[in-house]
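thought: fold this chain, then report.
action: predict
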Amino acid sequence: MRSALLLRTTGLTAVAAIGLAACGSDNNGSSNTPGGSSPSASSCATGSVIGQGSTFQANIEKQWISDFAGQCSGANITYTGTGSGAGIQQFGSGTIDYAGSDATMKPDEQAAADKRCGNTALHIPVTAGGVAIIYNVKGLSSLNLSAATLAGIFNGSIKTWNADQIKQDNPGVTLPPTAIKTYHRSDGSGTTKVFSGFLDADAPSVWKLGSDKSINWPSGLGANGSSGVVQGVQKTDGGITYAEVSYAKQNNLPTAKVKGAQGDFTDISSSTVSQSIDSGFTVTGTGNDVSGKLDFTKMTGYPISTVSYAIVCSHYSDAGKGALIKAFLAYAVTTGQQQAEALGFAQLPASLVSKDQTAINSLA
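observation:
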């Protein structure tokens, strides 16, 4: 069966538009590597679905859509990485069918989403990953950064790469006097919410800027999307930013080991992210909502780890869209998890997949 893949990067926004079949999975295994077989023709759905939001999850969304494209015909899914804030806003206004977000909705955003849906809008975790600290310092290929040092770097109080705080994190390492140039998200970003939440929780004596999708940054340069901040770092000696780790891999940039409230300096990997989600994420949503809380002070693996959500309606007035979204999410949280590690993400814990499946089965 033939499928068409259109992948286009325009400016700083990545767009995946793929002719896609909706394919369900009834796998209910309890392992951490859920699987599934190719769907039968009767499990496919037709129609079109538009998703938008988190650039953090954009790369795995593209992979899911690409892998899914040849399995069924008659359906089309488009996902655009524009940032969690934009995704939530557009979902609430009814211009897209589902949103991707690394942060749960605020009460006013939830109210707008519920009104648009005509019923309760749900958060469903679809992937997990770490927010990597990505840097570009000539001659420096290995770097340790504690929460307090990162807070000082991004609040502008630590200005050079040979500052005492960085030296203390990296004993015996020759550090250059290069000026530090931070890059942060200029758009409303769930990744910013996660990163600032980590600093707020693990370095409260240094970080006084709070935690949100947008921060009033006292210094540094802003750029749109994860690709934007990473491109800034790539062209800047002394640059540093925060983004999903696949952007570091794509641009051949190193990532720092990070020390949070628990443990020692830890590298970002699928296993260390999974460890932190197991130890630091708790589902707090009610009913079929699988939203949760991150407690960075309890994370025992890579300490800047998060889940990333799909935000959907409980029921869609267009039954075809509802069926297509239901089938796609069923694939994403089961068979789709097998793509996580290769792309720098982590598989969802089996207990969370089980909660996801219950929520997805309730969709209509």
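thought: worth noting. The first strand starts at residue 5 and ends at 10.
final: tokens above.
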